[in-house]
Amino acid sequence: MNAIEFIISGMLAAATPFLLAALGELVAERSGVLNLGVEGMMAFGAALAFIIVYNGGGHILAFLVAGIGGVLLSLLFAFVALGLRANQVATGLAIGILGLGLSAFFGKPYESYTIKGISKISIPVLSDIPVIGGLFSQDIVVWLAILTSAGLWYALTRMKAGLLLRAVGENPKAVNSLGYSVFALRIGAVAFGGLMAGIAGAYASTVYTPLWADGMIAGRGWIAVALVVFGTWMVGRVFLGACLFGAVSLAGIAAQTAGLSIPSQILTSLPYLVTIVVLGIISSNKRLLKLNGIASLGETYK
Amino acid sequence: MGLALSKLPRLVRRERASMPMMLIAPFAALGLAVLTNLVLYGMLGKNPLIVLHAMLIEPFLSMYSFSEVLLKASPLLLIAQGLAIGFRAKVFNIGAEGQFVLGAIFASAIPVWYPNITGVWVWPLMLLLGALGGLCWASITAFWRVRLNANEILVSLMLSFVAIQVLNYLLLGPWKDPMGFNFPQSVMFPLDAMVPTLIPGTRVNVSLLLALALSVVAWFFVQRSFAGYKLEVGGLAPRAARYAGFSQSKAIWISLLIGGFAAGLAGAAEVAGPVGQLQRSISTGYGYAAIIVAYLGGLHPIGIVLSSFLMATLYIGGDNAMVTAGLPIAAVHVFQGSLLLAYLILATFVRNRLEWPTPHGEQGA
Q1: Three-state DSSP class for A231?
Q2: Confidence band (pLDDT; 50, 70, 90) for B363?
Q3: Which among B79, B127, B89 has a CA at the least distance from the CA of B260?
Q4: Which residues, 6+ apart, have CB-to-CB distance to B125 below 8 Å?
Q5: Cβ–Cβ gap A280/B144 under 8 Å
Q6: Any CB–CB contact under 8 A between A199 and chain B?
Q7: Residue B240 or residue A229, greater confidence
Q8: CA contacts within 13 A on the Cβ side of A22
Q9: Which residue in B2, B162, B340 is closest to A269 by CB distance?
Q10: How many CA within 13 A on the CB side of residue A269?
């Protein structure tokens, strides 16, 4: 397999942790809440899922428990940042540190253990196409992540619940005066973010790289937060952004197989550097951000 | 939902911030964090009392372990004072870890390139170089934020991940000690490249005095200077600040440069102090712990002095608990996260009070 084929076939799987976490954060931010604890919620989910699979609980239970773990941390965030009106940035950081700590704490006995991933589902005919065929041979979670993206796009643009969620982010007072509870809507959105982050972590530790190492999330939660900005809070663009980062994170391995002699540290840094550069490019377009940004993002609602 | 919410107590904003609550909050937060963590240890079958003793009492039982607390406190104090100035101006520099690493790298350049260097000026120059290294690294974030409008939280954090890779590159490649049996570490620093020890028989060095002196400077800057006032207004009310002729971009630049300078200085003092060479393990999360130190100290220079000693105690106590109670070192990070969370919960009541619903309905003020 050459480098191009390697990237094409692996891109979607590499993109999935970014995509799942970013979709969750997108929903939370659409409702006006900035939860910076994504990295910690992912790490916590990753540890829980790995422990369950390693002890024979199976992948379905692992994803379920990881999702619940993410929800619990996000509800803790909601209690402090929404219920008690604490600063959302500081609260998100606290949840991030706590989640990373808990993952290292519970994951400690499993350091560098490996487990078995899950098998791929190939689409007949399409997966036999040369060069791009690998794109159509993915595990079930990747297919579900793509379906979730489509579903979320539909919900946010075509369904009443999605429009209500967006309205909460744009103008919470108006939504309140319509008789809806701003708090209930936002808590729901934050919990969805936690669920998705937990599942994203589970995918990273039990399917994408089925081994446990402390710090294995390695900033992917933070890149997911950046992806929401890149995608200017739109599902389609976040999806494309996640694919880009999937490809970028594979570029390192691809370059090594192609025999290029680039220091591995530069290749490891690539996703972070790309994040910095793209963030600069997108953010400098103030009109774009103003047009698509969330009016009440990060503000305390009283 | 509406029915359920009306039965819950409501938060009502106080007319003015409660001074007693402000003083109680950090201690109550510590109590709350201790309690929840002890329950966690208990659930894992550890004896909570043994852990408590190891974490919070043992560090004070011998002169040596107390001196280790003082040693750990100086980098935390330095970084947190720098960060707090930015946080007060609502500039969220989360990348102190990377600025700390760059400080360590810049300072190490002198002994790595001139391993036989002598002179009393060597270590002060290294500290200065380290501070400049941190400042340069932070200036990337400042440029991205001011010129490109990019979120400083994400940029500074991404740069921390990059900084670790720069460190790895140097230690596995050009800066690796040729006589070091292929370990990823630099040469051992010569004596003149080390910060002088303050208390004989311990590892406490001059950087503690430096950190305390800079705390006084920070107090003066924040509480007494017009520049500090402008900075805070620039962050809190950008429109009002612009109206008054204070520049928000300047506030961002100054916040990040001060934060980077202090973190870089701390990184330099770490390699030229207790470590004595550039290693991969110099980055042990001080940059993140200092965020907690800054908040726990109420973003106030005097409070931060106290909270940095508390955090240092937790580090040393965590090491003890690892030995005596077999607790993983990650327990310290769990404790740190819950401590910040507990503080944020309690700090709510500095500016708000709880109002319980009256039995007649919800006609509260």
Answers
A1: coil
A2: very low
A3: B79
A4: B110
A5: yes
A6: no
A7: A229
A8: 34
A9: B162
A10: 21
pLDDT digits (tens, 9 = 90+) for A122-180: 888 888 888 888 888 899 999 999 999 999 999 999 999 999 999 999 999 999 999 99
DSSP assigned state of B197: B
Q: Do B155 and A276 touch (CB under 8 A)?
A: yes
Cβ within 8 Å of B, A 146-175: none
Dihedral class, residue B275 (left if φ above 0, else alpha if ψ from -120 to 50, else beta):
alpha
B118 within domain boundaries: yes
Furthest-apart CA atoms within chain B: distance in Å: 82
CB-based contact B150 A36, cutoff 8 Å: no
All structural domains of chain A: 3-119+131-292 (1.10.3470)
Q: What is the dihedral of CA B55, B57, B61, B67, to 10 degrees?
A: 50
> Could you list the residue range(s) of the whole structural domain that residue B30 is in?
18-352
Residues sharing a CB contact under 8 Å with residue A221, sequence separation 6 or more, in sequence order: A21, A38, A39, A40, A41, A42, A43, A96, A197, A200
Whether B362 is in a domain gets the answer: no
Distances in Å between the Cα of A90 and the Cα atoms of A101, A298, B47, B207 are 16, 11, 32, 28
Count of domains forming chain B: 1
* Token pair listed for B71: 């040693």
The answer to whether residues A130 and A5 touch, using CB atoms and an 8 Å cutoff, is no
What is the sign of the dihedral through the CA atoms of B226, B232, B237 and B238? positive
Of A87, A279, A302, the CB nearest to B154: A279
Inform me whether the pLDDT recorded for A52 exceeds 90.
yes
Q: What is the DSSP letter of A7?
A: H
Residue carrying structure tokens 């370059």 = A255
